[in-house]
Amino acid sequence: MPNPPVGCVIVQGDEAVGLGFHPRAGEPHAEVFALRGAGARARGATAYVTLEPCHHHGRTPPCTEALITSGVRRVVVAALDPNPAVAGRGVQALRDAGINVAVGVLETQATRQQAGFRSLIVRGRPWVVAKYAMTLDGKVAAPDEGNGQVSGEVARARAMTWRNELDAVAVGSGTLHSDDPALTTRGLSGGRDARAVVFDRRARSSLQAHAWRPGSVLVTAPDANTSAFEAAGVTVVQTATLLDALTGLGRLDISSLLLEGGPGLLSAFLDAGLVDEVRVFIAPKLLGLGLSPLTSPARRMHEAQELRDVTVETLGPDVLVTGLLSDIPCL
Ligand SMILES: NC(=O)c1ccc[n+]([C@@H]2O[C@H](COP(=O)([O-])OP(=O)(O)OC[C@H]3O[C@@H](n4cnc5c(N)ncnc54)[C@H](OP(=O)(O)O)[C@@H]3O)[C@@H](O)[C@H]2O)c1
Question: What percent of the chain has pLDDT over 90?
């Protein structure tokens, strides 16, 4: 069972008396940390929680029990649990105990935070975020140049935080060969390094590349010879289609995938309809001849894929545009 990102705040009067978040699988849930912080001040308070409190004995006891015992008077839940075995039961248990429960407050924001968790539960595959950086004239790299930086320091630092937040970060064999990226959270204090995933249908990438480390995954064709990778401790997923590849990554408990390019792999995902979210940095530079971010066949303008819930942010000299291509998976 994947682990959702959940936060909880206990409010007594107008004071936040307890705060908690769920740090990782097997550790107490957000509600438990928040209630511990609040202590006796939880009695009569309101608990705000981003995901419906659990009502089953998993790796930890049910949070509904902890909330009921604490004496909170009201619980505000942003979103119901997408797991059909759980959905609604936590809320019902709280109501049965006489607690006033509100559901759906800031639901859009909460479900966006939980996109990976929801994707894995509902679709059995990770939420896919396509990320790239391009110049003002739409180029992601100069011809025959590996590692030329498109965006500035602030933008690159932001991208590092995504590698920390998402479960895995992927590149195609072309980028592995030309840039040899380490795909780590380099220099981010407390960074936890997402799993590195390399898409290489022929399994011909050099094992000396920096992306290979314990936990790295090679996604390759069913008939590729993967013995050297397996001997080096790389996890191998062999599939004929990108959809099956994502299902294979889902089986490894990867709930969110940051697709960092390059153009060949990004285009294949986009053409297969498997990109859920797009995050693009635009640098105020003009390059001239170079690589376009996408190699997809030309479309008519009215056939262009339009992003929803678009955000635009300035990061140093660069602009970050984000948006969704899929709905956040729900029940
Ligand atoms: N500015 C940016 O944000 C950014 C980011 C990344 C890369 N880049 C640049 O992009 C350039 C590399 O571009 P690229 O297109 O060669 O690299 P790529 O997209 O990383 O790799 C393309 C290769 O991925 C492999 N692949 C594996 N599964 C695939 C699938 N299902 N469909 C399609 N391809 C699949 C293919 O090789 P096989 O057929 O052998 O499997 C294909 O040749 C470099 O210059 C790099 O610096 C820029």
Answer: 83
Return the CATH number at 27: 3.40.140.10
Q: Whose CA is nearest to atom 3 of ligand 1?
A: 132
Quick check: 194 pLDDT over 90? no
Tell how far CA 218 is from the center of its chain.
19
Asked whether residue 39 falls in the same domain as residue 131, the answer is: no
Domain residues for the domain of 53 are 7-113
- 175: CA distance to ligand 1 center in Å? 5
d(CA 9, CA 256): 26
Catalytic center residues: 31
* pLDDT tens digits, 39-68: 999 999 999 999 999 988 777 778 999 999
Which tokens sit at 63?
Answer: 């949070």
- Is residue 167 within 8 Å of residue 116, measured between CB atoms? yes
Answer yes or no: do 109 and 238 share one domain: no
What's the number of domains the chain is made of?
Answer: 2
Q: Do 161 and 228 belong together in one domain?
A: yes
